[in-house]
Amino acid sequence: MKIFVAGATGAIGLPLVRVLRALNHEVTGMTRAGADRLREIGATVSFADVFDPQSVRNAIEAASPDVVIDQLTWLPANPADIIKSMPNDTRLHREGGSNLLAAAEALGVKRYIVQSRGFYLNAPLGELADETAGLRCDAPGEIGESARVIGAYEDSVTGSASVEGVVLRYGFFYGPGTWYRPDGAIAEQARRGETSIIGDGNAVWSFVHIDDAVAATVASLMAEPGVYNVVDDDPLPVANWMPAFARWVDAPEPARVSVVEARKAAGDEAVYYHTCLTGASNRAAKTKLGFAPRPLLWKDA
Question: Staple partner for 279: which of 18, 177, 206, 212, CB 3.0–4.6 Å?
Answer without folding.
Answer: 206
